[in-house]
User: What shape does this take?
Amino acid sequence: MSTKKIGLIVNPVAGLGGRVGLKGSDGADIQAQALAMGAKPEAPHRAEQALAYLKPVAAAFTLLTCPGQMGAEPARAAGLEPVVVVQVASEQTTAEDTRRAAQELRRQGVDLLLFAGGDGTARDIYQAVGTDVLVLGIPAGVKIHSAVYAATPRHAGELAALFVQGKVSSARECEVMDLDEDAVRQGIVAPKLFGYLKIPFQPRLVQSLKSPNPASERATLEAIAYHVVDHMEDDCLYIIGPGTTTRAITDVLGLPKTLIGVDVVQNRKLVASDVGEKQLLELVEAAPCARIVATIIGGQGFIFGRGNQQISPAVLRKVGRDNLIIVSVPEKIYALEGRPLLVDTGDPEVDRMLSGYIRIVTGYNHTMMYRVNGE
Assistant: This one.
């Protein structure tokens, strides 16, 4: 078996705004704001998680990467010995650094380019190399609509290891999607197709393209909302996650909803809007009881770890698995064709806690049990 060349690019600021509720990390101003609010870089750690699954086959590939947190540091933390072939001008990396790195790794002839980031990073990779290079995304962003990512960092590592061993025979061109973050912060969600990247394909290891609720499901959404509202307990805190399904609940209550943010309701009144992890923990600590209301991302099956990072592992531990209220129109579940629901919180222990069968509200007094895979 010939030795393969694997490229690695990590966007250190990807996902920086997630925990603190900024709905993205694009732009120096947002990154500075996130850091000022106490955000910590997640992407290098998630890259390290993926690379750990490559260590057993380290003899079969050479890892070519960038210096520092853009690649070398997470690679060494995972027990690998990278070769730094890309130079970066400063520690504060930019989208241009990502594009230049991708172009250099293409020039170096990598067989597979791994990159850790979100939809903005996928756009940069697409702009730099198009479909000339086989790539695979390690999910580390806030919003991941693109279908070029593995389902979790672990799955990225497993798929890359299979590729190194010559056990992946198929590739697929998948969509690179992104949102206008300024529009998103005004409650306007309009994903746009930017192009395609070619990825090694294994259905159980890669995530699907996100799909929205069709307008025809409005009556079902209202039925789900009335079920949740009618079962709300006095004085209990309800953490309402992002999405159009959860927005139906606040519509029934006559309250405003941050479409892709997290809001908090108590005694059927809005007590906090568009909150981050820190404020959620404070509110939960002060409340006699708390529930988390979350929905399923259509097409992908994620319930935590995609677009709702404010509901962090610490928040999930505090509230507990028994206090989760998962809501979904039945069509989203049927579309999974038996594939499990997914979680990718960034904490393997919490992911395991969330695993197993969970009850989903699919209508008024209608529920179903469905399996969650956090392994």
Observations:
- DSSP finds 13 helices and 16 strands in the chain.
